[in-house]
Amino acid sequence: MNHLRLIATIILLYIPCFAWAEDNPLASIAAEPPANPPSFAGQLKPAQLRSLGFTPLFSDGSLEQWDTQPWHVGHWTTNDSVLSYDGKAEHGKSKRADLWTKNSYGDCIVYVEWRLPSKPTLKPHPIVLYNGDFLMQEDNPKARYTRERMDAGDSGLYFRGSLKCQANIWSQVLGSGEINGYRTDRTMPPGVRRSCIPIKNADHPFGQWNAFLVTLVGNTMSVQLNGEVVIPSATLPDLPANGPIALQHHGDPVEFGQIWIKEIGKS
């Protein structure tokens, strides 16, 4: 029950008007305007995160928590507040350009700030149907229908060491937060695939900062983006019990701000 109370508390921090129990020790965080207000919708400040039991994975320019490799050098770079990736690190089966944490995590809540810094250009985007399938051409069933849409790039977050368990960062009309590996897996039950599609597009305009709040408990994943629920609850079959977290390589530039984690069930 303690982890459920924590999740509920964080959700309420995003809601402008709500009632708090009188004995809630965190009520003052939302009851009074913060001394250092958020710069964008959905942002949580370090003092808030610490008070809720989060610890930093990236907040001060240090990559101590991350498993950097020689081929990452010059591509994953930091300053005091931003972790930047140019999208150009060597990437293959033996050398992955994704940046993984050194430690593994099980049940947790992860807060991540991110933005796509590239100038948007028109690109063809596939059309996703309600069941998770792509809309295919009638006269060529192996070819997808596409439509032109402004695109600033693609990235994402991997969880539990799984390339299927991904909170997508992208330019698609579906919006970020989509759990791509499960949504596109046609061996999954229809309900699982549908639950991995965001219920709304809550992305800020290209170039602006966004904030994910991703909760993983057992094999269930939920995603908030910029203070709005985009994946209410997706049950992910055969999800590993624990594993490292990664910032995804997709060949495009991406920037990350604060990255914090709250491990559920650990004091």
Please explain how this structure is put together.
- With 267 residues, the protein is mainly beta.
- It has a single domain, classed as Sandwich (Jelly Rolls).
- Helices cover 12% and strands 32% of the residues.
- It is built from five helices and 16 strands.
- The strands form four sheets. Strands 1, 2, 3, 5, 12, 13, 14 and 16 form an eight-stranded antiparallel beta sheet that branches. It has a four-stranded antiparallel beta sheet with strand order 4-15-10-11.
- The protein is globular.
- The two termini are 14 Å apart.
- Mean pLDDT is 88; it is low at 4-35.
Mind sketching the topology for me?
Elements: H1 2-13, H2 27-31, H3 46-51, E1 55-58, E2 76-78, E3 83-85, E4 99-100, E5 108-115, E6 121-126, E7 136-137, E8 140-144, E9 146-151, E10 155-159, E11 162-169, H4 180-183, H5 190-195, E12 210-217, E13 220-225, E14 228-235, E15 246-247, E16 254-263
